[in-house]
Structure formats: C-alpha cells, structure tokens
C-alpha cells in the first residue's frame, strides 16, 4: 500500500486510472490541475506522483520541478505526445520514469512498484563503502559526501549503488535500464543519461569533469576508479 | 563557376573545337585577351610612328647631304679651269673631303676606301647628264649615301652645258643609323614596358568584372546549401547588376515557397500532435476501464466474459491502430528524428522477440554480436512488425537471422507458410492498409505495420524487401547501414558522446 498522487486533467482518465490503480492496492489521491496537485502532494504526503505533462495553467514540467525541489519523492510522467522533446524536458525537470499514453494500468502499476523498490535497503554486498570522501551506506540507504548527507531520489540512489557495486566495470545503458529501471523491454537510454547527470550534480565536485561516474564513450558508464 | 558545366561546354558544336591553349578559367581568359589587345595596339602604334619618323629622318639626312655637296660644288666649280688638268681635279677632290671621287674623261682624283660602292648604274646615270643622283647602299661597315653629280658650266648666254667633270661623294650614314637604333630601342623598351602595365590593368579590369560574378557564385552556393536568406547588393546599372537583381528575385521566391512549405509542415506536425493527444486520452481512459471490466467479468456468465474479452480486444486493436496511424503521420510530417546509438542488433532483435512473448514461435539464429548505430526503438518496431506479420500470415517456425553484409546489417525474417501470393507485387506489401489475404482482413494487424517498417528503414538510409524463399515461405529482409564510422547526430549529445568504440564489452 503506497500513497500515490495522480495529477491528470482529463476527467475520464483521472477517474478510471485512479480506480484501476486503487485495485492494484495503492492509496490514490487524484488532482485535475497542477496547483491542486501541489496542494494534495503535501496533504496526502504522497510517496510517488503520477503526473500528466499536458495540464492547464501550470504545466507538468513546472509541477515536476516544484515537487523535485521540495524533496526526493519519485515521479512517473504520463506523456500523451510522441514528441521526444516532451520526454527529454520531463526527464530534465526531474522525472524518474515515463510511460506513453495510452497505457494499461498494470504497466503503470509495474513502473510504480519498480520505482518504489529502488528505495528499499540493499541487502547484498557490504553495508558501508567509502570511495574517497563519498560514503555509501547500503543498510540505511544514505549517502554522505565530505561528512554531509546527500539527499537522493530512489532512482539516483539505486543508480549509484548499481554502479558502485562493481567499481571499474563498464555497464551499458541497457544493462542499467534493466537493473535500475527494471525495464524488461528495450528502454529509453535517455533515462540513464539523465539519471547520471543528476547523480553527478549531487556527488561530483565538478560535474563537467566527473571522478566517480565516468562516461565510456560509445558504450555506457563506469564507477571510478577513484 | 561550377565544375559541373565543363562537360557540357566540351559537348558544344564542332565549329568551336576545344583549344588546349585557351584557358578554361574566365579570369585567365580576360587577362590573356586584354594583354594581347594591349600589346597589338602598342606595337602597331609604335611601329607606325617609328616608320614615319625613320622616313623623315632619312629624307632629311639625304637632303642635307645633297645640299652640302651642291653648295660645295657651286662654290668650287667657278674656280676650276676648263678643261681641268690632274692638279685641278686633285684640288677639287681635296676640297670635297674624304671618300670622294672626281673624274674628267681619263683623269681621276680619288680618296677613301668606300669608292668601290659607287655602282655602275650611278656612273651611267651621271654620264647621261642626270643632274643629281642619290643612292643608299649598305656594305659591311654600315649604310652609306652615294651622291653623284656632273659639274655644269654656264655659258655667257646663260645656257648650261656639261663640263665632263663628274663628282662622286660617299657619305657615311652611321650617325643617322645610330639615331635610328636609339629610336628602335626606345620603341622596344616602350612596348616591353607596356606589357606589365597591360597585365596590371587586365588584372584590375578582370577583378572589377569577376568580383560580382564571384559574389554571385558564392551566393548561389550558399543558396544551394540552404541559406535562403542570402541576397546580393546590386551596384551600378550594368548587366551584372541586372543579374544580381534577378538572383535576388529568384532567391526571394525560393525562400517564400520553402517558407510556405515549412509552415505547412509545421502545421501538419502540430495537427498530428493535437490529434495524438485527442485520440490517446480517450483511448487511455478506455484502456483503464477495459482492464477493470475484464477483471470483473471473470465472475460473470460466459456470455458476459466473451463480450468483455471482445471489448478488451477491440480496445487494444483501436489503441494499436491509433498508435500506428500517429506514428506514420509523424513520419510523414517529418516530425521524427533518429536517435542513433551503438547497440548489438542481435541483442535488440532477441529482446524484441522475447518481450512480445514470441519465444516459442520464433527461431533466432544464434550469432556473434552485430554492432551498429541505430535508433533502438525504431529497430524494435520494424522487426516486431516483420515478425508479427510473419506470425499472422505465414506458418511457424518463423526464423529470424541477423547478419552483416558489407557495411550493412541485415535482419532476415523467414516463415514457413505458402510464401507471397502470386498475384501480389512485393512492393505492394508495404503499401498502407494493404491486405494480401482478403479472407483474413480482420486479422490483428493494423495494416500499417509494414509501411511503418519501410519508412523506418528509409529513415535509417536502409531498405526492406520481400520475396518468396526457395526452401521456405515468405522472406522479408530489413537492411540498415551500420553507420559505424560516423559520429552520432547532434541530438545524441544528451546521452554523452558516442564515437563507435566497440572494444569495451561488459
């Protein structure tokens, strides 16, 4: 049972999707506008937001940015357009994953569960590991850099754990999509690139010259060597 | 000037055969023509002036020499007694100076070495009483002037008669020749000096003529490269200014029509986006509702269950059809950009088959990884359409093979059905809403799958073809260039740079 906030302007979609997600065992609050959504977000203390990008007045990107600014609650975007630019903008606004309408509620449910699983404690490997001034605690799911806590979304955290589990080893984008996003189909590698960008902004001293997460040109990413 | 017009010029009619010395370059032609004209003009003017000056100099020299000899003779003649003796002749000759000869019947007084130049004709002319002859001769030491005259006696009655005394004087023309040589030198030097001047002038002229042409060529190139806002500033009122104005008009017309096309394209794109949203939203609601209806129907009567299943199926088909239509519209509107990334095509194809639950019906031919820069989503859709088509219209097993051929990657989908219908052209299969088998018109396919595969293949710079295979049924071949040596497009920047390094396999 997780508390989900659904922000969707179309009445029929909002009602039917809220009901369908309710059947999958989620506690769903639904809002027709971005403004209402932001109000409910606090009131409902949502654990995850399902957000339509095409909203009247305040658009989905803005809602996405505000929720991201307020904390680490994961966001799954609903995009109606096939325009790639929407996906890119949505990811840059801080979304963790996206689905393209029309989509069956069971697919959305699977995504919601996958996103929420990323925040669950990792029982494999060492509980704490230090890489330079970066300390990752897998038991408590916390990351500190130079002694300060770094607030991370579950996606960023899981991406860091996945990469740091095998320092020096190159992981392809599709591998990361499968292990972090749990996309069993051919996923969108921009999710990975965007996640890496946000992660770098949080843990790298100079995100333009990364030390921890390095790009392996033409293939994927590698953690360290630090 | 584009090199492209050269062959057509070579194909000109035979009355103008190609001349190897005639430069192809317009500038060189202008300069060469200008210099030739300038040199011809300078030479002609100088030669005419030289000839005229030379004639007048020679005339003047002859006149002065003749006057001098005549004066001397008319001064000396009265002092000579007649008939003169040898002494008198010698005196007369001495007064005339070097290179002179005086004769009187058998007597001769001579001096100088140039006297052998006096020709017999001259002597004959003088003997016949010719008053004064002047002849120009040239020997090894240079040009000479031979002057000859008989001395005439004036009687008391005023009549003149020949005295029988003949006077010959040879005068050296060396100073005159030196003067002429100086003039020749000046003329040659002048012409030689005019040559560089003509070249410089030709350069200036060719520049002033060619610069507008060059500007025009440059602008035309820019226009060809897609810079439709390029314009020339016509200067002056000559033909080149007219040409520039015409060019500007052409460019403006081109820009206008291209702008109109772009505008329409943008409209079409916007329309597709709007339709996309308008269609997807109700289908999304339907999909959500149908999922619940289907679940609820499990506890109802078989009739209800059948109806629910039908409704769910139709909803899925509607969703699929809308999706395919929108995809094609986006492709048609040019609203699609390829997102190439380096992937193992064999892996993508395996995923396509696996994620659609086709493992049991499809035989994947095992292969080494086949790396290529492709748009993964589009490759996935294309292969899924081919395999889905084979599963619907052919018979299992459907064999899928990934292999390379030259710089291309091939995905070959072969089924074991009856092959392509005999009356169907292979290209027709890729037409929209084409159904080869009308009896099965209500199949699961939208009728757009193969068209989408075709457009996606073309978007990659590849092809898709169909034929009936000899040993099995229908065979579809998707052929895409591997694109390994080129950098990904600019839109790939978000995903980090990819340059086709292939050695790091995790």
TrEMBL record, chain A:
DNA-binding region(s), residue ranges: 126-225
Record keyword DNA-binding present: yes
Lineage: superkingdom: Bacteria
Response regulatory domain location: 3-116
Gene3D superfamilies: 3.40.50.2300, 6.10.250.690, Winged helix-like DNA-binding domain superfamily/Winged helix DNA-binding domain
OmpR/PhoB-type domain span: 126-225
Pfam families named in the record: Response_reg, Trans_reg_C
InterPro entries for the chain: CheY-like_superfamily, OmpR/PhoB-type_DNA-bd, Sig_transdc_resp-reg_C-effctor, Sig_transdc_resp-reg_receiver, WalR-like, WH-like_DNA-bd_sf
Modified residues (4-aspartylphosphate): 52
Keyword annotations: DNA-binding, Phosphoprotein, Transcription, Transcription regulation, Two-component regulatory system
PANTHER family from the UniProt entry: DNA-BINDING DUAL MASTER TRANSCRIPTIONAL REGULATOR RPAA, REGULATOR OF RPOS
Protein name: Response regulator transcription factor
Source organism: Promicromonospora umidemergens
UniProtKB/TrEMBL annotation, chain B:
Keyword Endoplasmic reticulum: no
MF terms in GO: kinase activity
Keyword Repressor on entry: no
Biased amino acid composition, Basic and acidic residues: 482-500
Superkingdom assignment: Bacteria
CDD domains the UniProt entry points to: HAMP (cd06225), HisKA (cd00082)
Enzyme class per UniProt: transferase
SUPFAM superfamilies: ATPase domain of HSP90 chaperone/DNA topoisomerase II/histidine kinase (SSF55874), HAMP domain-like (SSF158472), Homodimeric domain of signal transducing histidine kinase (SSF47384)
Boundaries of every HAMP domain copy: 207-259
Catalysed conversion reaction: ATP + protein L-histidine = ADP + protein N-phospho-L-histidine
Keywords of this entry: Kinase, Membrane, Phosphoprotein, Transferase, Transmembrane, Transmembrane helix, Two-component regulatory system
A Pfam family hit: HATPase_c
Compartments where found: Cell membrane
Transmembrane portions of the chain: 183-205
Ranges for region Disordered: 479-506
Domain annotation Histidine kinase: ranges: 274-484
Matching InterPro entries: HAMP_dom, HATPase_C_sf, HATPase_dom, His_kinase_dom, HisK_dim/P_dom, HisK_dim/P_sf, Sig_transdc_His_kin-like_C, TCS_sensor_his_kinase
EC number per UniProt: 2.7.13.3
Protein name, entry field: histidine kinase
Organism: Promicromonospora umidemergens
């Amino acid at each position: 049972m997780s508390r989900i906030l659904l922000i969707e302007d179309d009445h029929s979609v909002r009602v039917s999707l809220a009901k369908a997600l309710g059947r999958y065992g989620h506690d769903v609050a639904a809002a027709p506008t971005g403004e209402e959504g932001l109000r409910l977000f606090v009131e409902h203390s949502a654990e995850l937001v399902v957000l339509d990008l095409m909203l009247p007045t305040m658009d989905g990107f803005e809602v996405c940015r505000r929720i991201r600014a307020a904390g680490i609650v994961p966001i799954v975007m609903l995009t109606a357009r096939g325009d790639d630019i929407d996906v890119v903008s949505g990811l840059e606004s801080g979304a963790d994953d996206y689905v393209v309408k029309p989509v069956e509620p069971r697919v959305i449910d699977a995504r919601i569960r996958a996103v929420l699983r990323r925040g669950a404690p990792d029982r494999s490997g060492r509980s704490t590991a230090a890489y330079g001034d970066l300390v990752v605690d897998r038991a408590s799911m916390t990351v500190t850099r130079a002694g300060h806590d770094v607030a991370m979304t579950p996606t960023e955290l899981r991406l860091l754990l996945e990469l740091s589990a095998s320092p020096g080893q190159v992981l392809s984008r599709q591998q990361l999509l499968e292990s972090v996003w749990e996309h069993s189909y051919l996923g969108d590698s921009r999710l990975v690139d965007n996640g890496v960008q946000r992660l770098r902004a949080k843990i790298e001293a100079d995100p333009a010259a990364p030390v921890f997460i390095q790009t392996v040109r033409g293939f994927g990413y590698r953690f360290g060597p630090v | 000037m584009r090199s492209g017009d050269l062959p057509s010029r070579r194909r000109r009619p035979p009355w103008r055969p190609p001349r190897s010395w005639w430069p192809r370059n317009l500038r060189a032609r202008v300069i060469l023509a200008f210099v030739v004209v300038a040199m011809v003009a300078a030479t002609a003017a100088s030669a005419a002036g030289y000839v005229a000056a030379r004639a007048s100099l020679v005339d003047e020299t002859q006149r002065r020499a003749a006057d001098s000899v005549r004066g001397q003779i008319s001064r000396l003649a009265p002092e000579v007694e007649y008939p003169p003796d040898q002494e008198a002749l010698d005196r007369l000759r001495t007064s005339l100076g070097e290179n002179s000869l005086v004769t009187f019947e058998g007597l001769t007084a001579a001096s100088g070495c140039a006297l052998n130049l006096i020709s017999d004709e001259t002597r004959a002319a003088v003997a016949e009483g010719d008053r004064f002859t002047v002849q120009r001769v040239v020997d090894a030491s240079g040009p000479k002037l031979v002057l000859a005259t008989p001395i005439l006696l004036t009687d008391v009655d005023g009549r003149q008669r020949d005295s029988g005394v003949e006077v010959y004087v040879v005068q050296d023309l060396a100073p005159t020749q030196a003067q002429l040589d100086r003039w020749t030198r000046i003329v040659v030097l002048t012409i030689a000096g005019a040559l560089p001047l003509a070249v410089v002038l030709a350069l200036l002229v060719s520049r002033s003529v060619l610069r507008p042409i060059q500007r025009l060529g440059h602008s035309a190139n820019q226009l060809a490269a897609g810079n439709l806002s390029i314009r020339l500033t016509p200067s002056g009122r000559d033909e080149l200014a007219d040409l520039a104005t015409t060019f500007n008009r052409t460019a403006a017309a081109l820009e206008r029509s291209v702008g109109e096309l772009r505008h329409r394209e943008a409209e079409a794109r916007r329309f597709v986006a709007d339709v996309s949203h308008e269609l997807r939203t109700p289908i999304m609601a339907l999909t959500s509702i149908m999922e619940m209806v289907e679940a609820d129907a499990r506890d109802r009567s078989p009739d209800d269950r059948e109806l629910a299943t039908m409704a769910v199926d139709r909803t899925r088909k509607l969703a699929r059809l809308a999706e395919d239509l929108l995809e094609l519209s986006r492709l048609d509107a040019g609203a699609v950009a390829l997102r190439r990334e380096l992937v193992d095509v064999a892996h993508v194809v395996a995923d396509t088959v696996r994620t659609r639950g086709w493992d049991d019906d499809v035989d994947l031919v095992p292969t080494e990884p086949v790396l290529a820069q492709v748009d993964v989503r589009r490759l996935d859709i294309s292969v899924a359409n081919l395999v889905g088509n084979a599963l619907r219209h052919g018979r299992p097993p459907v064999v899928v093979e990934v292999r390379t051929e030259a710089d291309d990657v091939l995905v070959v989908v072969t089924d074991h059905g009856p092959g392509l219908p005999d009356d169907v052209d292979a290209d027709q299969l890729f037409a929209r809403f084409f159904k080869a088998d009308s009896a099965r018109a209500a199949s699961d396919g939208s009728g757009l799958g193969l068209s989408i595969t075709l457009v996606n293949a073309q978007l990659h710079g590849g092809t898709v073809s169909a034929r009936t295979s000899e040993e099995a049924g229908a065979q579809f071949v998707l052929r895409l260039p591997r694109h390994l040596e080129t950098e990904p497009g600019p839109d790939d920047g978000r995903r980090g740079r990819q340059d086709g390094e292939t050695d790091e396999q995790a």
